[in-house]
């Protein structure tokens, strides 16, 4: 594999030389700034061999580097070995941003190549469709200071990728969301009036599918279709392949005033807006740089898509369905935990080894039996022992570790149902565990329970609340290199902006969202010890009204995730009275909801797992 990567890099470098491109930036993702993308868009993986869902590859004639975040440091080190590609650990002290690295590298190369007579043009190559408008503007501004330019139509990978997967084109279908298309479009038009804009260009797939009450399967685990949309006072235009829709849905869309046009025609439409000098609302984080270039003559107001906040606040219909589906999803996970413990214990005696992949497949099969299941919300993470230290580890069929009757198995999984999206993580004791494992599990659990039990004044953000989850770990000098939680869509992306829990604000990112009633957020503190083990405990929680007094409106969280915890990993000596109360309250709630649906050994397992401690 490494020789293949080196061969591809050399081919790309030859194309760069022919085009006069000094540095080539290859981003992760599709033309819509999606977190995950279909196989067609796997250019960065194709060229680097790194399979993580986040990362940027930067190539020049002499070197290649890959930027990724703390979730993937361990994984990237392994996958880049032997390729000559250097890992750049984003967020670590001394590591530059992608923009700074690209500009500094171009400057260095120009100085090396210029001899006083021959001048080298400072060019950064990239496919502008795969780069956010915000990053494109940042790069352009920085390059301008050194006389550099962007070639936004450069795509060397496209020229060397043989047998590339087909462009995604799944069939679309309609879902019930508790609000009509017309109602949602009306709200967007009201937002346009407030923003004093003529029209709104939308490129983010989850926003588009939410707005039009449609879903698809163009991105594995994300039930969306490839599309753009433009909303104005007069029109609601959906740019996608009309062949996706059956006749009934085409007629429904037409009845609601939705016009369907070809996918790529959006660039021409943006060009027309540019010629007319229209006042356009466009979110630079959620449209690509190529679209922005086509809007060069328009008066663009850079503001977050109004739909981002709208879809984050789930309505009563959605919440009712989420509460119901979490019981069925929780039953699947509970049955799995019982099964995997039993199988591992029996395999110890019989000598037949169960693997991480076997465990994941069994859980996926249980989840698929739930009514209205469509697909997983992400590939199930089944990580045993040291593999769990990699936050987004995936067990391959050939590389899957065997489960033993000792240590811990971390399983992070979720489903996409017509009644909503689920995401849950449990760390499971398979046998004897060390004192440090029990210590770290207990502290992570203390934090998870404290955040779940928070009461707070309306106006708080995830930054105000994140410390509740981290405090027990911070007290012993531990932390985890990720946020504590993320928003979750409704039969949409499992990672959904803008709500979340994190302690550190990222400059330039709108992540200071106020937590509002109806927002569903994950709560997942953990501990990751490289080479030893990983722990994560994740519940979904929903923000609800608590009470009002002279200080204002107080809010709280209610649990959605209904899955027992791991009593064998809890050190009760580290719990105070409040910790025990929180744990026992959650255990009683889980038992009350799940016990009517279980019997025999599974019910006995649930009783033991949720017993009062």
Structural account:
This protein has 613 residues and is of the alpha+beta class. It has three domains: 2-160, Creatinase/prolidase N-terminal domain (Creatine Amidinohydrolase, Chain A, domain 1), CATH 3.40.350; 173-306, Creatine Amidinohydrolase, Chain A, domain 1 (3-Layer(aba) Sandwich); 316-575, Creatine Amidinohydrolase, CATH 3.90.230. The strands form eight sheets. Strands 4-3-2-1-5-6 form a six-stranded mixed sheet, sandwiched between helices. Strands 12-11-10-8-13-14 form a six-stranded mixed sheet, with helices on both faces. Strands 21-28-27-24 form a four-stranded antiparallel sheet. α4 (98-113) packs parallel to α5 (133-144), α13 (316-350) packs antiparallel against α14 and α15 (435-452) packs antiparallel against α16. The longest helix has 35 residues, at 316-350. The protein is globular, with a radius of gyration of 25 Å. It starts with a helix and ends with a helix.
Strand content bin? 15-25%
What is the CATH T-level topology of the largest domain?
Answer: Creatine Amidinohydrolase
| Shape summary | globular
Helix fraction by DSSP (H/I, runs of at least 4): 25-40%
What number of structural domains do the residues give? Answer: 3
Structural class determined from secondary elements: alpha+beta
Specify the CATH architecture of the largest domain.
Alpha-Beta Complex
Give the radius of gyration: 25 Å
The order of strands across the largest sheet is: 4-3-2-1-5-6
Q: Give the mean pLDDT.
A: 95
Specify the CATH homologous superfamily of the largest domain: Creatinase/methionine aminopeptidase superfamily
Give the total of beta strands.
28
Q: Supply the CATH class of the largest domain.
A: Alpha Beta
List low-confidence stretches. none
Number of helices: 18
Tell me about the biggest sheet?
6 strands, mixed
Distance between the termini: 51 Å
Oligomer: single chain
């Amino acid at each position: 594999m490494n020789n293949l990567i080196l061969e591809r890099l050399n081919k790309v470098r030859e194309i760069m030389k022919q085009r006069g491109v000094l540095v080539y930036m290859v981003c992760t993702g599709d033309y819509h700034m999606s977190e995950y993308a279909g196989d067609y868009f796997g250019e960065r993986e194709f060229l680097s061999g790194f399979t993580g869902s986040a990362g940027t590859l930067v190539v020049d004639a002499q070197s290649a580097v890959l930027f990724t975040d703390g979730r993937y440091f361990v994984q990237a080190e392994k996958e880049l070995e032997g390729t000559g590609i250097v890992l750049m650990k984003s967020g670590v002290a001394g590591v530059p941003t992608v923009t700074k690295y690209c500009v500094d590298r171009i400057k260095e190369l120009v100085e090396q190549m210029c001899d006083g007579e021959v001048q080298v043009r400072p060019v950064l190559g990239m496919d502008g469709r795969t780069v956010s408008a915000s990053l494109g503007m940042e790069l352009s501004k920085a390059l301008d200071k050194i006389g550099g330019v962007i070639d936004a139509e450069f795509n060397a990978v496209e020229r060397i990728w043989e047998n590339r997967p087909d462009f995604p084109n799944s069939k679309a279908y309609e879902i019930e969301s508790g609000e009509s298309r017309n109602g949602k479009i009306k709200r967007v038009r009201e937002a346009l009036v407030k923003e004093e804009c003529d029209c709104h260009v939308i490129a983010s797939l989850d926003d588009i599918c939410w707005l039009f009450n449609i879903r698809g399967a163009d991105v594995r685990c994300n039930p969306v279709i490839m599309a753009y949309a433009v909303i104005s006072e007069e029109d609601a235009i959906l740019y996608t392949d009309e062949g996706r829709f059956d006749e009934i849905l085409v007629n429904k869309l037409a009845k609601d005033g939705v016009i369907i046009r070809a996918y790529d025609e959006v660039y021409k439409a943006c060009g027309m807006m540019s010629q007319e000098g229209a006042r356009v609302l466009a979110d630079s984080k959620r449209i690509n740089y190529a679209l922005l270039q086509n809007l060069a003559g328009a008066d663009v107001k850079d503001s977050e898509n109004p739909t981002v906040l709208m879809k984050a606040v789930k309505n009563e219909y959605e919440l009712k369905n989420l509460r119901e589906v979490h019981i069925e999803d929780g039953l699947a996970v509970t049955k799995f935990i019982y099964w995997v413990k039993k199988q591992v214990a029996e395999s110890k005696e019989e000598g037949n080894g169960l693997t991480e992949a076997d465990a994941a497949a069994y859980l996926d099969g249980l989840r698929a039996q739930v009514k209205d299941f469509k697909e997983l919300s992400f590939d199930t993470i089944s990580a045993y022992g040291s593999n769990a230290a990699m936050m987004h580890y995936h067990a391959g069929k050939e590389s899957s570790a065997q489960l033993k009757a000792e240590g811990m198995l971390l399983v992070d999984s979720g489903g996409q149902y017509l009644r909503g999206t689920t995401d849950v993580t449990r760390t499971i004791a398979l046998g004897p565990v060390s004192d440090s494992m029990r210590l770290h599990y207990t502290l992570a659990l203390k934090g998870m329970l404290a955040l779940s039990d928070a009461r707070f004044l309306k106006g708080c953000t995830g930054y105000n609340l994140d410390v509740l989850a981290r405090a027990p770990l911070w007290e012993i000098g531990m932390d985890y290199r990720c946020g504590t939680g993320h928003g979750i869509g409704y039969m949409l992306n499992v990672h959904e902006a803008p709500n979340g829990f994190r302690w550190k604000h990222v400059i330039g990112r709108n992540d200071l969202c106020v937590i509002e009633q109806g927002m569903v957020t994950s709560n997942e503190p953990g501990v990751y010890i490289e080479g030893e083990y990983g722990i994560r405990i994740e519940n979904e929680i929903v923000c609800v009204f608590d009470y009002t007094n002279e200080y204002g409106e107080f809010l709280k969280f209610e649990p959605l995730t209904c899955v027992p915890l791991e009593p064998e990993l809890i050190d009760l000596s580290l719990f105070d009275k409040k910790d025990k109360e929180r744990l026992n309250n959650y255990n009683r709630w889980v038992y009350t909801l799940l016990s009517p649906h279980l019997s025999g050994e599974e019910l006995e397992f649930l009783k033991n797992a949720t017993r009062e401690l």
